[in-house]
Amino acid sequence: MEQGHRQVGARCGQHSLLLRQDLDGALCQGGGGRVIAKAAPWKKDRVSELAEILSGDGIVGIVDISGVPAGNMLDMRSSLRDQMTMTVAKKTLIKLAWEQAGRSEVELEQLFEGAAQPCVVHSESLNAFELFAELEKTRQGRVAKEGELAPVDIVVEKGPTEFGPGPIVGEFNAVGIPAKIDRGKVAIQRTVTVVNEGEAITGDLGIMLAKLGITPIEIGLILTGAIEGGFVFPASSLKLDFEGFRNDVMTATSGAFNLACNTRWFSTATVPALLSKASSEAMAVAIEAGVVNDETASMLVARASARALAIAGQLDSSALEGADAAASDAADLDAGAEAPPEEEEEEEE
To answer: Facing residues of 193 across strands?
Structure first.
């Protein structure tokens, strides 16, 4: 059949006919040797539906849904229904719709990279980065099946399990997971890498990993790329470190504020800080200059007291006693200076 199709394509000399063979299914021979493609109605409807979506406003992306079980797919689509539409179709149908919408085939080929089973997503409420973030939330693990390749090193950690004594101990050991009975429970004796990245997972190992709650095969709606405003965004350019980005913005904002304050750039954001800084500097100058007013008096007294205590702390006891004696003598002299006038008055009497 395939060879016959190639012969028909060579005879007609039209590449588009070959493309539509995949769309329409079987070919039929018309009168006069004409070859007419017999279209499947549902395929035409799907192409028209896709072309209408691709011709509208908003963002368009391609998602790889390979490996996603039907049940999981329904749940994912249900959770995203309010934010985007998802249309599953073969690559051939998507190409035809893309062509009808007047979009660049080169852009489509870029979006198809990495999409084994493509699905068209469309949203008028999200931008490319928001679309990527929402689709990333659908990532989840599932049980490994016979022959599937490990996406990363699969490690079983040391520690107790929820299983009681029984044949399961031997089942764990049979697949390379060292287990024993410890305090009435099955425990993993040591941390072990049971499968290295890229190696095939056996069926028995997948079952035992599932019993431990290890689901190594990641599934989800994986965005391979999106087109917004005429620009193609590969998925790699849409993955942002939001926490790091937030920290960078905070650091930049703080640096800009400090620079504005240091250069005395007046704005609604910097005026309160600049006034506070000016007030503090004016107070410091007044204290150093010994300017006494209602605001500085208490600070000057406190500073004088602190300095006096500091000096007193550096003197020995004899010096302090001498200071006390000098103070006492000074007091006696003051008293004696006031006494003579009283004696003279007595002599006169």
So the answer is: 155
Q: Which one is predicted more confidently, 312 or 224?
A: 224
- C-beta neighbour count of 187 within 10 angstroms: 17
Q: Which residues 6+ apart lie within 8 Å of 171 measured at CB?
A: 204, 208
**Residues 117 and 26 both lie in one domain:** no
Q: Are 142 and 91 in contact (CB under 8 A)?
A: no
Q: Which distant-in-sequence residues (6+ apart) come within 8 Å of 200 by Cβ?
A: 147, 148, 149, 150
Burial class (CB in 10 A: 0-12, 13-18, 19+), 20: middle
Q: What's the CATH code of the domain at 115?
A: 3.30.70.1730
Q: Give the whole-angstrom CA distance, residue 55 versus residue 120.
A: 13
Indicate if 33 and 49 belong to the same structural domain: no
Confidence (pLDDT) at 17: 37
How high is the pLDDT of residue 60? 92
Radius of gyration of the CA atoms of the chain, in A: 43
Q: Which residues form the domain of 7?
A: 2-39
